[in-house]
Amino acid sequence: MRITQRAKALGLGVVALAAAVGLAACGGGDGIENSGGSESAQTVKYQPPPSGDLTISQWPLYIDKATVPNFEKATGVKVDYIEDVNDNQEFFAKMQPLLAKGQSGGRSMIVVTDWMAKKMYDLGYLQNVDKAGLPNVEANLRDNLQHPDFDPDRKFSVPWQSGMTGLIVNTELAPNARSINDLFDPQYKGKVEMLTELRDTVPLVMKADGIDPNQASEQDWLDTIDKLKQAVASGQIRRFTGNDYTRDMANGDVAAIIGWSGDAVQLQADNPNIEFRMPTEGCILWSDNMVIPVGASNPTASEAFMNYVYDPNVQAPIASYNSYVTPVDGVKEVFQKTDPDLVNDPLIFPTDEFTAKCSTQPNITGEEEQTVTRAFEGVLQG
């Protein structure tokens, strides 16, 4: 039987958003101290057996209740598991001043989305992993995640979970919302929310207008952001949010949102009228990744945790809990014995047909990133 909990981050707010998007506008250039770049990246000094303390920064309610205690019991490592990632840019704004000085703020592992992991690595803020400490990852990482564009050899990243950005709707309030363009329908005025994540929201709106986000020009980005700006000015869009949009959906304040696939299932625990819908134009595909920052005090324990959650028997309760796409081969076989209803769940095991129209998060860098991010910042600040 599916394990369900209240939706992620019901009590979180979008903290320090202005500071976050301000730093985002700097991209990889002005205002960010580069501590060496990826060419000089250190490799984790893996020194088994794991011991001591491990501090993890993670997105809210992304793990079942038993995995961390079981890991502590199996290894003797004491884990401080902090759910303090609500938005990639917001988290980066908090961490960047420390990482630029070679400090991790006590964290030995953090979880961020593909593009942010790449950005942090290029700035010299992340270490390469020692694959000798990750035999389960080497054996069980799904084939289609082994060579992503942002980290082709998986030098510095290990997927935590993957997912889809699409529509989450309250079927009582927005029964016919199936396209991203439906979010601009006047009947939903003031009942729509979108993500503060630039690479989720803007590409989905571009897709709805027939633009391939991975082939989009800078002007395509700016035109789409202008469309969002007009929707904010008219009152069509209620607000832009991080992971805390779940609170507004749970409270009935919104009818339809751009949101993340697994959240919809957790929201259904309280309201069966809430569901994830694959947009008619397709979704945005992404992964959140476990990475080890510079200055990590216990990288051996980090790798031990990464390796532990890549045991299919450990991963299965995590996937059952959060209903995101599991990156670990062998989980379906576990579910056949423990949770047969989940074997064909398209949110955990999406088929090629289900994601046929989906795109990966586009990679924008340099001056284009700075220009586009500044424009999007103007929308977020109203």
Provide an overview of this structure:
The chain is globular. Strands 1, 2, 3, 4, 5, 6, 7, 8, 9 and 10 form a ten-stranded mixed beta sheet that branches. Helix 2 links the parallel strand 1 and strand 2. The protein folds into two domains: about 200 residues, Periplasmic binding protein-like II (D-Maltodextrin-Binding Protein, domain 2); about 140 residues, D-Maltodextrin-Binding Protein, domain 2. The longest helix is centred in the middle third of the chain and has 16 residues. It is built from 13 helices and ten strands. The chain is α/β, with parallel strands linked by helices. The N terminus is likely disordered. Helix content is about 35%, strand content about 15%. The protein starts with 16 loop residues before the first helix and ends with a helix.
Summarize the structure.
By secondary structure, the chain is α/β, with parallel strands linked by helices. The protein is built from 13 helices and 10 strands.
Number of helices: 13
The domain tally reads: 2
**Low-pLDDT residue spans:** 1-35
Query: How do the SSEs run, as a string of H and E?
Result: HEHEHEHHEEHHEHEHEEHHHEH
Strand content: 5-15%
CATH class of the largest domain reads: Alpha Beta
Report helical residue fraction.
25-40%
Helix- and strand-based class?
A: alpha/beta
**Gyration radius, in Å:** 20 Å
